[in-house]
TrEMBL record:
CDD domains given in the database record: MPP_ACP5 (cd07378)
Chain ranges of the Calcineurin-like phosphoesterase domain: 45-254
Subunit structure: Homodimer.
Catalytic activity field: a phosphate monoester + H2O = an alcohol + phosphate
Keywords recorded for this protein, A-Z: Hydrolase, Iron, Signal
Lineage: Eukaryota, Viridiplantae, Streptophyta, Embryophyta, Tracheophyta
Listed Pfam families: Metallophos (PF00149)
Protein name per the record: Purple acid phosphatase
């Protein structure tokens, strides 16, 4: 019976996606909603990768190989990309070969032929943003699910994907030589106000056992970019007020786990998809910084109604750090 209900849900998912993507460019920032079926036993398993698109270089291909192997072992349901999908300046357009060279031809393992739920990073905003958001890319590779901000309901867990780049002041006031594609974002303050309101409402209305928020930029980090002040001020209070379990991001080219002393929120960085920043780490309270790795890699997450388990892997597939939480209590396992 379980298997029979997933096929129509998958069909609905594809139809809903095509409907929603055409309205994904409005500055109202209204959250689109997608359905992702869980496994027959109710579990949800996925991988998280960020800061990756370099045509296979900087160990991107090696990380992809290990993702394929771990994905097969876990029988993952989907992959999350935390942004900076195409370096250095996003996609130039729909016909940019980088889409094939950095995505389709790299992540070609059978276990990775699942939906890729993707947010935009600051490097993506330096290119043709509308190209990454276009349904034409999904026609080229049906795994590609990229919107500015959206919700994925996976039954026991709900994911909120947030467009964090427009929050960061320096991209507007000190862009240096970079040119950002702000179509669909301006007027900026209207866009951000609407987005924050939508996120707050979505989290309040969620009845899922687990709540996970995904964005490109860090909220808390010991890496090169450190904390994103604008997100600390504007987004973090909403996460605290709505019992969010995880905030998952990229941006810093590392793997990282920070445990908040202010709430139960765990901050996890998976930005090691290709080029890493060796030795680029800042001091952080050891009560908060549980794990930091300045090399390439990715993470996996496996969730049941009662338990969430996150594991970080290096470019060789070695387990670097694992952490487990149960509803109502937390246990650090290594």
């Amino acid at each position: 019976m379980a298997s029979s209900k997933y096929k129509p849900i998958n069909f609905i998912f594809h139809v809903f996606y095509l409907i929603f993507i055409f309205s994904a460019h409005s500055s109202t920032a209204e959250l689109k909603r997608l359905l992702q079926p869980a496994k027959p036993d109710g579990r949800v398993s996925f991988l998280v990768i960020g800061d990756w698109g370099r045509g296979g270089s900087y160990n991107q291909s090696n990380v992809a190989l290990q993702m394929g192997e771990v994905g097969e072992k876990l029988n993952i349901d989907f992959v999350i990309s935390t942004g900076d999908n195409f370096y250095d300046n996003g996609l130039l357009g729909l016909d940019d070969p980088a889409f094939q060279d950095s995505f389709t031809n790299i992540y070609n393992a059978s276990s990775l032929q699942k939906p890729w739920y993707t947010v935009l990073g600051n490097h993506d905003y330096r290119g043709d943003v509308e190209a990454q958001l276009s349904p034409m890319l999904r026609a080229m590779d049906n795994r590609w699910v990229c919107m500015r901000s959206f919700v994925v309901n996976a039954e026991i867990v709900e994911f909120l994907f947030i467009d964090t780049t427009p929050f960061v002041d320096k991209y507007f006031v000190q862009p240096n030589k970079h040119v950002y594609d702000w179509r669909g974002v301006l007027p900026r303050q209207t866009y951000l106000n609407n987005l924050l309101q939508e996120v707050d409402v979505a989290l309040k209305e969620s009845t899922a056992k687990w709540k996970i928020v995904v964005g490109h930029h860090t909220v808390k980090s010991a890496g090169h970019h450190r904390n994103t002040i604008e997100l600390e001020k504007q987004l973090l209070p909403i996460l605290h007020a709505n019992d969010v379990d995880l905030y998952v991001n990229g941006h810093d080219h590392c793997l990282e786990h920070i445990s908040s002393v202010e709430s139960k929120i765990q901050f996890m960085t998976s930005g090691g998809g290709s080029k890493a920043w060796k030795g680029d780490v800042n001091h952080l309270d050891p009560q908060e910084l549980k794990f930091y790795y300045d090399g390439q890699g990715f993470m996996s997450v496996d969730i049941s109604e009662a338990e969430l388990r996150a594991v970080f892997y290096d470019v060789f597939g070695n387990v670097l750090h694992q952490w487990k939480t149960y509803k109502e209590s937390l246990y650090l396992t290594s």
